[in-house]
Amino acid sequence: MNWLFLHSNQILTFVKSITDGKLLIVPVLIEGSWHLQAQNPDSINEFPNSPFRATESLKTFLFIPAESVGGEIPSEKETVIFGAKSCDLPALQILDKLFLEGAFEEPFYSERRKKTIIIAEDCSDCLPSCFCVAVGNTPYPENTADLIFSDVEGGKLVAAATERGEELLKKHGGSFSAATELQLSEQKEKRNAIKEKVKISLQEQKIEIPENIAEILQKKWPDKIWEKIAETCVECGACNFVCPGCHCFSLTDELTSEGKALRTRVWDACLSENFTRVAGGANPNKKREVRLRHRLERKFIAPYEAEEGYACSGCGRCIDACIGKLDMRKIIQEVANA
Q: What is the DSSP string of 192-225?
């Protein structure tokens, strides 16, 4: 990857140049939490630099929670999302594969994806719920994003990870200089430090996630183990909705007051009892503990068998969102030690 250096006093100018005429979404600190929100580029005097991932994932802006899909495909405004983190990018690959590859390209997702520039940056800190390193991910982006930013003394190192990113650098990169060996060394040192910090955070919480998660979950454990684990689950689906890679949805059809047909697509959750219930009333996943186990299997077994790694990037959003205090990391650890 070809790293360039951008001085700190040029960062805002560079990003505003890319954003000219587009919608800008950046991290905003609200009551102690970082959120991705649309901002007017002209109103930003200092560019926000979130230390870790935001509450919202990229999925929120590309795969809309609820939208009408029965009519014409709307023309989306070109968008720049700044501040994506490494844990968002593997999930973005999952969505891309589902909606863009194969025999059918999903037009609504495709329209947004093609008009969205993703600028990702390294993490400089971690939340207690972060566990990216335990599932083969890193707290710094290495691919998928159009541009990648890394903090170094006096500015940022910038590299393109896509063809669109290369085009952006050619068009807007007049203020860049080649990264020096000293800057690359500083970047490596900082990246190793944040990676170690995530590991230490897990150690301090006494969380030890085994490497062979898929093999562990494939074992035929007694149902009572999963019954005990699922005791506090209230089936709210929060873990499904905040997960950057979950993509299940349902379709509803209705007539408007004008007598027109309306088809709406909304996010759905595999932890909901109605998720696998069929028209005749049968439900293969009627028990709550079965649905909870199914969720973990879809994150760790199915993609593993397809040799695609895990479908969990270790962002920890599901841990923070769960009102039943279920922790995926501890569930895996408990099952492994059963």
A: HHHHHHHHHHHHHTT----S-HHHHHHS---HHH
